[in-house]
Amino acid sequence: MVDAVWGSDKPPIPQSKVFVHDVKYAGLTVQQKWANVAERLATKKVDAQLISTLDDIDWIVNMRGNDIKYNPVFFSYAIFFPAYGEGAHSTLSLFIEKSKVADESV
């Protein structure tokens, strides 16, 4: 339905690569951010958190992009699965156009 509304005026999907935002600018490592978020979600007994705002996704994965002019964001969605307890590891599924990721280390 959306494609029908756009018609031939639909802009192309941006193809610029995402890049890692260095921790010296981000303030915290990804692991620290995930631990902090998991701790907050534990108080609400949350099993998963859907993240759809681009700036929140960029923040939680310490990555940036150039999909929107004058905003260092990239188009994506994410689901965060907090882990609770000693030694537990939270996980995150990032849904992004595969061609936007330069290599598997990102």
- Give the CATH H-level superfamily: Creatinase/prolidase N-terminal domain
Helical run tally? 4
Assign the CATH architecture: 3-Layer(aba) Sandwich
Instruction: State Rg.
Output: 16 Å
What can you tell me about this protein's structure?
The protein has 106 residues and is of the alpha+beta class. It has one domain: Creatine Amidinohydrolase, Chain A, domain 1 (3-Layer(aba) Sandwich), CATH 3.40.350.10. Helix content is 28%, strand content 16%. The chain is built from 4 helices and 5 strands, in the order αβααβαβββ. The protein has helices spanning 2-6, 23-26, 30-42, 54-61, and strands at residues 19-20, 49-51, 63-64, 77-81, 91-95. The strands form 2 sheets. The chain has a 3-stranded antiparallel sheet. A two-stranded antiparallel sheet has the order 1-3. It is globular, with a radius of gyration of 16 Å. The mean pLDDT is 91.
List the helices and strands and how they pair.
Layout: H1 2-6, E1 19-20, H2 23-26, H3 30-42, E2 49-51, H4 54-61, E3 63-64, E4 77-81, E5 91-95
